[in-house]
Sequence to fold (863 residues):
Amino acid sequence: MNTVTIEHLTKNFKKITAIDDLSLKIEKGKITGLIGSDGSGKTTLIRLIIGLLLPDHGKISVLGLDPETQKDELNKKIGYMPQKFGLYEDLTVIENLRLYADLKNVPHNFEKLLEFTNLKKFQLRLAGALSGGMKQKLGLACVLLGSPEFLLLDEPSVGVDPISRRDLMQMVRDLISPETTVLWSTAYLDEAHSFDKTVVLNQGKAIYQGKPYDLAKTTEEFENKVIDLMGGYRKTKSRIAENYIPKNSDVEYTVVADNLEKLYGDFYAVRNNSFKIKKGEIFGLLGPNGAGKSTSFKMMCGLLKPTGGTARIMGIDIKEDPEKARANLGYMAQKFSLYESLTVKQNLDFFAEIYGIHDKNLKKRVDEIIDIFGFSETRKQKSGELPLGFKQKLSLACALIHNPPILFLDEPTSGVDVITRREFWNHIKSLAQKGVTVLVTTHFMDEAEYCDRISLFYKGEAVAIGTPSVLKKKVSATSMEEAFMKLILESEK
Amino acid sequence: MRILRALVKKEILQIVRDPSSIIISFVLPLISILIYMYGINLDFVTVNIGIKNDDNSPEITRLVNSFSCSKYINSEVSDNMDYLTEKLIRSKIKGMVIIPNDFSNRLEQKQSADLMVITDGSEVNTANYLQNYILQISNQWLAASKYAQFVSPQIVNPQVRIWYNQDSNGYYFILPGSIAITMTLIGILLTALVVAREWERGTMESLLSSNVTRFHIVLGKYIPYFILGMLSMIFNLILCIGVFRVPFHGSYIVLTLVSALFLFTSMGIGLLISTVLKNQFFASQIAVGIGFLPALLLSGFVFPISSMPEILQYITRILPPRYFITFIESEFMAGTVLSIAIKSSVFLLILGGLLFGAVYRNTDMRLSHD
Fold:
């Protein structure tokens, strides 16, 4: 039995072919993972399946219905969670649940859902004030109302920490009946590996359909296989690092946090945060959503004033001379913070200018950056229209434009596909070898392994600092993910 | 029914949480009424004039004094022409009267005497007003002076009565008209953002994949903002009638019914903008452009429609405030005039119905990718 049957499906947007002669079957009662690079057509495919978009050619049958003509019928049987979760941020948790229960015409019986999501305590909190992980759980709870036959989740775990991801997976497995079909789009290949089925999309075509286990036995192998399917990743010398011109300085510890503290009312967002990062070191900040990583970040680059303690960048106190300290930093924010309506080149020009590169030097530097980052083809495109991976690369380029000795990267690979992630880390590691100090946050535990040292953050405090192997040994874990969970559990006690 | 109720409830919760719609509904009318009440005054205000009197006869001194008798005129007497000219240039005085030294002599000899009046033409209304005022005062003085015998008596004596607004209070007709302008803006502003907001925040995608129908989406927006708009209307009327004591001669029931129809049309404009544009920033820009300027300039509130070029007169016919302004001004000042009320209602109903249809048709039930 198949929940979805797709035959020769094609969908074009203007000149771009999003789905290209795709044929696909999604088996009933199974969890199917949908993976693929950015812009490979995952979201478009999901929207076509539930009739939010109409195909140009081809046939789709979902639960025996035609989404083009029988969308109303179909809507009653499905649960769809869009990328932004579809929550009303100005309604409370319980109001969101009531609204979606009414829309689906099911009774107001939320006890079980609230218990599973651990949202019982937060019923009266506005959805907008929830952490990323909690929003995602609430979004899922709203979708699960009325026990849909077919559940479609579009990248529910973007930017969510490993603990919340595990909870989410557990929720789905516990709350659906054995007959429920799930289509789950994800950038996490470990997640995809644990599903019953997997579909790998590439440029609008399904390049693999089947059991993930048949493709590879372990998660790592699976990742390599998927990369191979997508055309492979060849590690080349990072041209970004090659073209980096190190600045001479005799500061040994380039980034120092000295008892950093941020107090909101009587709530410590960050406290007792101290660490020293050596020149050329990659230092990872890990921790669940809302643990205070971003707050620490913002304080360290002088965007937020600490209520106690201080930080020193290249020996310059950020409290005393934030501007001078900041001039040594390249900062990449969590959200895409470039001008979406400007083209790639215009963004680069702008950032070069504000970092004090002018006239002849500016043109030379921007041309150089366009060349080494491979933006020649996209230089005239509006940055808002680029696929996520490209956007992140552009953000990195803007952060590096003034050759800073220190890089601050806040979740640089969130929502980026596996090949782009590998490229990114190749650049980061090569830059570190040339003496750039890197402070990075991430939710990918495999990336944590690339760091020289890690600080694990929880509830505003660093609960453990050390190299990945030391941290794993400390709780006798085999993987970083296991170490993460165990260390956090331990600190709870 | 349950779906519609849930959508309306959701929208009301959003209204309560979001201060901007409350500000639009209640603070905007307050500010606008205060501006129309005190800022835009079509009534005469106190004007300063200068007087240079070169004639020293006592009879003429009385004329000079009577220029200061009006509560709307302050006069300053000076012998220094340069000084007065300087004051006129600096706009400290709006005009001057120069009485030549042979003024009384010529009158004594039953000759016509010249009085020089200079006004500041850069403010045409004030200049006209001053001119009339000075003429009137000098005629009055003449009639009471010993020279009155030389003037032939007037045969025609017009007796002027002003109907509907006996006190000639400008704000008696400005305030009701301003309600129409404010309510156009409120109706459009409240609704222009609400559909676009759902698209931008991605909640529309969730709604479209639930059991919601097109009818639910459209009514789910109309109903809550209609309620809020009517509350705002009542607030406007309380300010107007209760606080600023504008006399109301019409029927509250008729007023409420036609106001409701008017709100229905201006909400239709806002919702149409929002539904088509799907972008909050763009929608708010357009809303102010469409909502405010034509309502102010083309509705007959500021400039009479009959004096507009013909093409503009046709355009005014599709503007809801045009009908509402006519209606509300007559309702306030003359009481219910059935023909006006019915004509306005019919037009508003047609316009509102067309807009509702357009909103309904343009409500997408799928994502149209751009």
